[in-house]
Amino acid sequence: MINKSDAIRIIAMGQTSCDVNKGNSFFANINKRKEVWWIGIPESKIKSGRKGKLNFLLFDCRNQQLHHLSVPVAFFQSNRLRLAEKDGRDTISLELSANPQKLYKDVRPKAAGVDFKRHLCRSVNVANDNVSASVKKGGAYQKRRRNQRKEEIIKSKGGACSKCGYSKSVSALVFHHRNEKAKAFNISGQNLNKYSWELLLKEAQKCDLLCANCHAEVHDKEGWIHEDGKRTVKTSRII
Predict the structure, then answer these.
(1) Gap between the Cα atoms of 238 and 55, Å rounded
(2) ∠ CA 110-116-117 to the nearest 5 degrees?
């Protein structure tokens, strides 16, 4: 068996633009006796006005296959009356079939048989050595994915410091926000995995790509100085 965190890591492996996270994903292990996956979706996820996609991560332990379906919120909205609701809860209840003849079809008795097959993105063999290693070494995988994403964003910004042209080390390149008030988050560290690819690219548009030296010089001009390796505010600057 695998869990939701494992499934997200596996599906995101090697796909820098894959927007799969805990907030937009629903994971289910197969019920072997009934050959179905059960998923509950809060009504708030598909309410009118919401856009984007929801991800189904469906694991079949019989053949070690993990199936990824990416379903537009608009699809739920247009089929809302055909989907069953859990009694007394504001939750849509899906019972997706694992039977080859009805694969990914909602077979809950109170529902109208909505078919989700068209939204299949891919299926991954979890027994694959590379995939198994990523599950066992989640920390190493997360670091590798952070580095991949940073490299892709750096390429999108020209691949070199916008002031001096430095490009030798990815580690020595940083994203400097031109306007601090417009900054939503820093493009570094855990944030490279925390935020979706679309949000990262949107935030990068607010930034200049700088090397560490040029970045320090920019902050010095803005009123920052460095003492004993620490960054402090000039005493003449009003906070």
Answers:
(1) 48
(2) 135
Residue 77 to residue 215: CA distance in whole angstroms? 47
Mean pLDDT for 127-154 is: 72
Q: Render pLDDT for 61-89 as a digit per residue (tens, 0 to 9).
A: 989 999 999 999 999 999 999 999 887 67
Structure tokens at 192: 């490279």
At 130, the amino acid letter reads N
Residues 44, 48, 52, 57: is their CA dihedral positive or negative? positive
**Average pLDDT of 175-199?**
89
Structure tokens at 221: 């001009």
Distance CA 170, CA 214 (A): 14
How many whole angstroms separate alpha carbon 190 and alpha carbon 83? 37
> CA 152, CA 148: separation in Å to the nearest integer?
6
- Residue 74: which H helix or E strand, with range? helix 73-78
Structural contact between residues 30 and 58, judged by C-beta atoms closer than 8 angstroms: yes
Cα(163)–Cα(220) distance, integer angstroms? 15
State the chain's mean pLDDT as an integer: 85
Please tell me whether the overall predicted TM-score, pTM, comes out greater than 0.70 for this model.
Answer: no
| Percent of the chain topping pLDDT 70 | 83
- Between helices 197-204 and 138-156, what is the axis angle to 10°? 40
> Angle CA(20)–CA(22)–CA(23) in degrees, nearest 5?
95
